[in-house]
Amino acid sequence: MLSEKIEKALNDQIRIEAESSQIYLAMACWAEAKGLEGVAGFMYDQSQEERDHMLKLVKFVNERGGHAQISALKAPDITFNSFKDMFEMLFKHEVFVSQSINELVHIALEERDYATHNFLQWYVSEQIEEEAMARSILDKINLIGDDKGGLYLFDRDIQQITVTTASAESPE
Ligand SMILES: [Fe+2]
Ligand SMILES: [Fe+2]
């Protein structure tokens, strides 16, 4: 059984993953409207991944005798005015999610809930990967600067970049 405290904390994380999915979906739309098809495709994939993170938590809460809560979501804040700003926002958001996962791990230990602690290790590794990917994309964007040709190539190659990064990091 889940304690009330851990169930609430897991439900908060369910909302955060759902909001992440919304944020990346909004970014996909922004990029698609700007004709950046590669970037849009990347953001659609990220949005789907966040939904999968949410579902994994939903199933876990329900399997452990809790009740997963599906709550109202905030509208994403689309205030960036360049694709560089957008990726900076993505990076900051992933750092925020990592902090939230760390807090959740801390609560699991406090509650002596070792099953939840074990389950959360997947999220700990996932966040390391996502932060690393966001950081390597930002490095590439900084190299491109204002070069239009560079942006064209970046948009063409972004999905390849992330596929390569992911396969280099996870051997499965
Ligand atoms: Fe996530
Ligand atoms: Fe993420």
Automatic annotation (TrEMBL):
It catalyses: 4 Fe(2+) + O2 + 6 H2O = 4 iron(III) oxide-hydroxide + 12 H(+). Keywords: Cytoplasm, Iron, Iron storage, Metal-binding, Oxidoreductase. The lineage of its organism: Bacteria, Pseudomonadati, Bacteroidota, Flavobacteriia, Flavobacteriales. It comes from Gilvirhabdus luticola. Signal peptide: none annotated. It is found in: Cytoplasm. Belongs to the ferritin family. Prokaryotic subfamily. Its EC number is 1.16.3.2. Iron-storage protein. This is Ferritin. The keyword Iron applies. Residues 1-145 form the Ferritin-like diiron domain.
